[in-house]
Structure formats: C-alpha cells, structure tokens
C-alpha cells in the first residue's frame, strides 16, 4: 500500500518553496524600511534569525534614525 514514500518528496519540495516565498514576503518590506530610515538595507535579512529579529524590531522602534538626525540639523 502507501508506505509514506509517495508524498514525502513533493511535500519536502513544497515546504522549501513556501519558506522561500515567505522569507521574500517578510524580508523585502523590512529591507525597504531599513533603507528609508537611513540604515543599510541588508539589515532586513536579520529578520529571518530568531531572537535577532526581536532585537531588530526594538532597535528600529526605539533608536534614533539617521534620517531624522539629518532633518534635525537642517531645522
């Protein structure tokens, strides 16, 4: 009968495809947010690392943004 071999490869491939799609869906907006506030975009990749992603969110929320520092100097 079915010994578990029939679905294992297709589920595995689909799993990795789904993870890739979700990673792109999450990383792209965070990358753009980092760029807009004045930090390097590559910091958006940190959102994929457990516990570091929480640190990144708190850092973005409570740090002085470089773009705001430039605007404050002009005012």
Outline the structure in words:
The chain is mainly alpha-helical and 75 residues long. The chain has one domain. The chain contains 3 helices and no strands. The longest helix has 33 residues. It is elongated, with a radius of gyration of 19 Å. The chain starts with a helix and ends with a helix. The model has no long low-confidence stretch (mean pLDDT 83). Keywords: Membrane, Transmembrane, Transmembrane helix. This is DUF805 domain-containing protein. It comes from Marinobacter lacisalsi.
Summarize this structure briefly.
By secondary structure, the protein is an all-alpha fold.
Number of helices: 3
Radius of gyration: 19 Å
Q: Structurally, how many domains make up the residues?
A: 1
Shape: elongated
Through-space gap between termini: 75 Å
Poorly predicted spans: none
Strand content: under 5%
Q: Major sheet, described briefly?
A: none
Organism: Marinobacter lacisalsi
Transmembrane segments: 12-33, 39-63
Protein name: DUF805 domain-containing protein
Keywords: Membrane, Transmembrane, Transmembrane helix
């Amino acid at each position: 009968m079915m010994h578990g071999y029939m679905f294992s490869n297709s589920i595995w491939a689909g799993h990795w495809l789904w993870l890739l799609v979700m990673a792109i869906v999450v990383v792209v907006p965070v990358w753009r947010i980092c760029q807009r506030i004045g930090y390097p975009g590559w910091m958006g990749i940190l959102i994929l690392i457990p516990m570091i992603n929480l640190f990144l969110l708190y850092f973005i929320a409570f740090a002085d943004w470089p773009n705001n520092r430039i605007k404050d100097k002009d005012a």
